[in-house]
Amino acid sequence: MISYEGWILITGALVGITCGIVGAYLVLRRMAMMADAISHTVLLGIVVAFLITSRLDGVHMLIGAVIAGLLTTFLVQWFHSKGVQHDASIGVVFTTLFAIGVILISTSVGNVHLDVKHALMGEIAFIPWNTVSLFGFEIPVATLTLLIVLIIVLTLILALYKEWKLTAFDPALALSLGLPVVFLHYLFMGLVSITTVASFDAVGAIMVVAMLVTPAAAAYLWTERLSVMIGLSASFGAISAIAGYYVALWLNSSISGAMAMMTGVVFLISFVASPTHGLLAKWIRPPEKKKQVPTN
Question: β-pairing, 131-134 with 137-140?
Fold first, then answer.
């Protein structure tokens, strides 16, 4: 029988692992700000799905989030293609769609367990109380959802590893080889969307950005191999979540906030101690001598 604390730790670790895997590709694609945008705009998809079905659970929530994430991606790309700077496109789209979601929550949703604070911050401490019976075993709904999403993420990563690797490093070459670059891009954005909404209950929209970006950025400092980076990013995410829980108990503070803070701690350690890109390595390593240019 898993304890109350055990479910929180498992759920937090699942968030860290899933976000870490997806985040590795986000960092390599230089799309960290898209994670911020999608983590906010999926709120609109969740609210619209609730208004249609009047339920806060079920696959329709993921569908609404995916549609909102894809809409965000499409609008950002469309505005950029029309001459708007990419960062400006992201800022305009995500603030507008997120604002619409906030307005719908405050005016149309009413007195239900869906509000701006819940969507932004999340509350992992409540997760063990909302359970579903599976094979005679009570498991929190959020934990089961995260487990399913992790399986989906791993399946797609394994199936499309070479394709996504190529599109991340050289999209022009991928296009010349006949790969469906646009389809792969939107499929990946859909993956980011379902990962984000699955993490809502645990860490909320704001904190999920830290889980998506920071462990991957830390892993990037340790290796130049994608497979190793994905593994390190997932490990850093899980470590940050577990350590953050105990830090929150020690400080009597927000659990999700402490988890996000620990991703920053992991990054700082990596930034200092990485054997190739860390500050210590740069200080210890002697400066390279300039090569003499041969002369006749």
Answer: antiparallel
Query: What is the rounded distance in angstroms from the CA atom of residue 193 to the CA atom of residue 63?
Result: 9
- Residue spans of the domains in the chain: they are 18-115+155-279
The model's pLDDT over 140-180, given as tens digits with 9 standing for 90+, comes to 888 888 999 999 999 999 999 999 888 888 888 888 888 89
Phi-psi sector, 29: left (phi>0), alpha (psi -120 to 50), beta: alpha
Q: Out of 114-118, 185-189, 227-231, give the one with best mean pLDDT.
A: 227-231
Show the tokens assigned to 65: 């989030």
**What length does the chain have?**
296
Q: Taking the model in full, what pTM does it have?
A: 0.84
Secondary structure class of 296 (helix, strand, coil):
coil
- Residue 215, pLDDT > 50, answer yes
What is the phi/psi pair of residue 132, to 5°? -135, 145
- pLDDT exceeds 50 at position 277: yes
Is residue 247's pLDDT more than 90?
yes
β partners of residue 133: 138
- Spatial CA neighbour of 23 closest among 288, 280, 263: 263
d(CA 226, CA 239): 20
Q: Could you write out the DSSP letters of every residue in 153-171? A: HHHHHHHTHHHHHHHHH-H
According to DSSP, the residues that pair with 138 across neighbouring strands are 133
Measured distance CA(264)–CA(183) in Å, rounded? 33
**Average pLDDT of 204-224?**
86
The counts of H helices and E strands in the chain are 13, 2
